User: Fold this.
Amino acid sequence: EKSESGRSLESFAEEVLLEDMKRCLESDAAAAASFMTLFGDGGETESNEGMQDRKLLMKLLIGKGEVEEKFDAIDERKLLGIVRRNAFGPDYRNYSAIEEEWTSQVKERVERQLIYRRMLGMYPLSAIINHSCEPNAVRVFVGETMIVHASASIHKGQEIVWSYIPPTQTYSQRQEQILGKYGFRCTCTRCQNESCALGSAIGLAEKLFTLNEFNTPNSGAKGMEGVAILEAILEDDRLSNETRRYFRVGYTNLFVNHFNSTLLELSQTSPSNTNAIREKILACATQLHFAFAACHNASTEHLSILHLCYELVSFIHASSENQRKTIMKVRFWTEQMKRAHMVRYGCLGNDLENVRRVMK
Assistant:
């Protein structure tokens, strides 16, 4: 919950981490060197000068480098710059969502409140992995341990990249967030593709701009209208299938709003029509699944869509008169979900039901 001064949970997490970093500067030179090699505001820190030897750099990043002297007092603004561009926050939920959860639990006097073990932490070796809106790696936390898995084929000599921001944003939103927080413009394959399409297909940018009012969380029934408009726009012959998939992921909120509002209406729908409605949602969600699989496989957003597809097809199968046919769909979505979980969680993904419970 925010303090009386209006400070956010994120600012408290930054303060605690800064104090830990200061203690390392005074008493643990090797640990301090691991995060002082990273970039902060305005470029490299002084302690990064001359560290061109890759093996030495790797040792420093994992806190096993040989450091002869303790660090002098470092400007707090510089440390804060390192934190804001390199530290890793909570998984699954952002700070605002956690604040809302805790606030509602206090109001409702919930006895056993949710506890997040890791709010903000420095992982220097992982922090040097660069960004891409079409990543080939994902990260997951087990307690305070970060595990990195490949989410696509990575060839020898190919750079490992992951996404610094949620994939479910439009091209302009992603560019604004990356530039504002990390100080650079993204030129990954996805961004170049979308930028080229928006620049060359006359009128496309203007048409997509009209969807911005629908492309926000919890827009209700407007989601259905937004999805229909988006799909009409994506029928443009000037767009490749790859570009269509990229745009769909960027407008995920449209789809989610559509799914949520339609599912809420099921309770008021005749039982004989519910499966037909679920089939329509499933067809729409399937397109979104393949879009994620192509450009941001095994992201938490992709897993959420897979869980939805699995739930939908399970309901359809349970009430189907032809279960020999529907069981094939159940098996298909079970396999798709398992593959994505194995990519993200490795051997932890074997226990599919446990992961499902954790995500819920």
User: Anything to note?
Assistant: The longest helix spans residues 271-295. The radius of gyration is 23 Å. The first strand starts at residue 39 and ends at 40.
